[in-house]
Amino acid sequence: MKSVAVFHPGLQHAHQLAWGLHERGLLETFWSGVPLSGAGARPLPFMPAQLRQRMRSTVIPHDLRRHPVWWQVLLRARALARSAPARHDYTHRVFHWFDWWVSRQVRALKPRAVVGYENSSYHTFMAARSIGAICILDAPSLHHEDAKRLIEVPSNGYIDEINRRKDKEVELADLVITCSDMARDSYVKAGVSGDKVKSVLLGAELPDGVARPCENGRRLQFIFAGTLSSRKSIDLILDAFAQINVDTHRADLTLVGGSEEAQWLTRANQTPHVRHCPNVPQAQLYQLLADADCLLLPSRFDAFGMVAVEAMATGTPAIVSTTTGAREIISLFPNSGWVVEPTTESIFRCMEDKVINRQAIRHASPYALKAARHFTWRAYRSRVSDLIADTLE
To answer: Which residues pair with 136 in a beta bridge?
Structure first.
């Protein structure tokens, strides 16, 4: 029955997909470049305590998993690159090395089906095709043509090779899984058959011990969680937030995550009433989300935006943009948040309304909790494993 191999150079939500396949008795093996904790896992004494705290846990047995941590070492070496384009191109070259390495193993494993991830499945799928295996592509972003329309990608020229490989991966795939209808539509618009592309929205689950505090007359607390980058509209967020406090201190903003470029940290430090927390363990992130009144996710593009569900799981509603897949959550569960255009003016007006009308936050919170109960990881594992099982049949 075990017949599906899952490969990912990083992690993203691959462990949840593999977990769902394991629950159905379909998982043959799961390889990722990020180690996980779980039953049977051997401790890694050389791993810094900070990294061990951030490890995700899984019930997938250790003998079904392989985590070549040297890929993470290679990825971390990108910090040596002196520019954003150089870091971008280097990161994707590492993904392509992982893809080539995995492809050498596929012929020996001989799985019935392979699940690969966007931009790391070019050689893997060709190897899978050579042994008659089904190819399933998990594509967590928009089609590159739509992505290019929405934001400029920093690259020193390697982007053409990246997109060539992406197109070939889609061509070789029997099934393409996206994480929102918005992302699915971008593939169909690019000419991919709608029968081949299916969307499965992601999820979140609240860890134990997270509690939502009382307001106690405090100023409104906004939060952003993710990479501080132009794609995530960090410039628009800081501009809008500065307008909120232009005359008096009316709100606070917490930024959680690393920065794509040093300029965003500089701007954050120069903006009054903004605090920055670097990457934190998952449980700590959930508590920060619970401590806030409203999440900001007005990205220039985000195929889904998982942090929106994570915030809603704590009762914190979200402001998301029209160019995020997370807007579909608010469409399905009206009143759980607000949808804005990714512009400074639109973001400011929505934030200003929440500062003035605190009752809107209180009204949205129970709807946010209701939405999060629908988008759990358990529900995602069931939906995605059903889809893959149907494809195998």
So the answer is: 115, 175
pLDDT in tens, 29-52: 999 988 888 754 555 554 555 555
The DSSP bridge partners found for residue 175 are 136
- Give the tens place of pLDDT for each residue, 294-351: 999 999 999 999 999 999 999 999 999 999 999 999 999 999 999 999 999 999 999 9
Nearest-angstrom CA–CA distance, 63 and 40:
8
Question: Could you tell me the strand order of the sheet in which 134-139 lies?
Answer: 65-66, 27-32, 4-8, 113-117, 134-139, 175-178, 197-199
Intervals of CATH 3.40.50.2000 along the chain: 4-203+377-392, 220-374
From CA 344, how far away is CA 264, in angstroms rounded? 16
What pTM was estimated for this model as a whole? Answer: 0.89
- The CATH architecture of the domain made up of 220-374 is 3-Layer(aba) Sandwich (3.40)
The topology under which CATH files domain 4-203+377-392 is: Rossmann fold (3.40.50)
CA within 13 Å, CB half, 233:
30
11 pLDDT above the threshold of 80: yes
Q: What is the pLDDT of residues 213-257, one digit of tens each?
A: 876 778 999 999 999 999 999 999 999 999 999 999 999 999 999
Give the Å distances, CA to CA, from 182 to 14, 206, 214, 240, 376. Answer: 20, 26, 36, 26, 20
CA distances (Å), origin 293, targets 49, 117, 246, 361: 31, 34, 20, 7
Q: Which residue has the tokens 């619970």?
A: 290
Q: Which secondary structure element, helix H or strand E, spans residue 252, and what is its range? A: strand 251-256
Q: Report yes or no: 56 and 205 within 8 Å, Cβ to Cβ.
A: no
